[in-house]
Amino acid sequence: MRVLLLSLFLICGAFPSQGRLYRLIVKTARASFAGTDAVIRIRIQGTRGDLKERVINGRFEQDGTDLIDIYDYDIGYIKGVDIKRNNSGFLPDWKLDKITIKVAGAEDSIFNYYDWVPQNKWVELPLSCPNGSHKNAKGFCNE
């Protein structure tokens, strides 16, 4: 019976399609009062689709680094990141240094910003590529 149920799930697509792990390395700037207690939201764009808006949880302390894992469907190569914060918590202002996204089998995608993230407004972060690679005509990093 178990084999029959498992076969039914596989045939009907009850299990999610092959997903991917997106490791975000979020670096808060070293400047005074750069850390935040606000709620941080992110959107990630890829060559085969986008990850929908989500809250990312971290400490976001001055000169700190937060590692955040997102497991979701495969959106292809990373092309863009949008970020925003709300005005909640004590000292909600936030100075973001950069976000690096690591995906197995792909070049790292680096989004340098080093500026204050405005309240309740999406900010499109510029894509930079690691040494030895460049942004191609399709908008993602490769060697």
UniProtKB/TrEMBL annotation:
Keywords for the protein's UniProt record, in alphabetical order: Signal
SUPFAM superfamilies: Lipase/lipooxygenase domain (PLAT/LH2 domain) (SSF49723)
Signal peptide: 1-19
The PLAT domain, residue ranges: 20-131
One Pfam family here: PLAT
Entry-linked InterPro entries: Inner_ear_hair_cell_LOXHD, PLAT/LH2_dom, PLAT/LH2_dom_sf
Name listed for the protein in its UniProt record: PLAT domain-containing protein
